[in-house]
Amino acid sequence: MPILKVKDLSVSRSGKLVIHGINLEVFKGEFIGLVGPNGSGKSTLLLAILGVLKAQQGTVSLYGHRPMSRNILGKIGWVSQAAAVMPKNVKITVRELIQLGTLTSRNMFFPRKAIHRQRVEDAIKMVGLEDVADNDIVHLSGGQRQRAVIGRALASNSQFILLDEPLVGIDRDSRNALLKLLDRLCHEEDKTILMVSHDLAAIRQTAHRMIYLEETIRFDGPTEEFPDLTTLAGLRGIEPVHGHTHEHTTPVNVDAPNDGEEEGEKEEE
Ligand SMILES: Nc1ncnc2c1ncn2[C@@H]1O[C@H](COP(=O)(O)OP(=O)(O)O)[C@@H](O)[C@H]1O
Ligand SMILES: [Mg+2]
Question: Domain 4-226, what fold?
Answer without folding.
Answer: Rossmann fold (3.40.50)
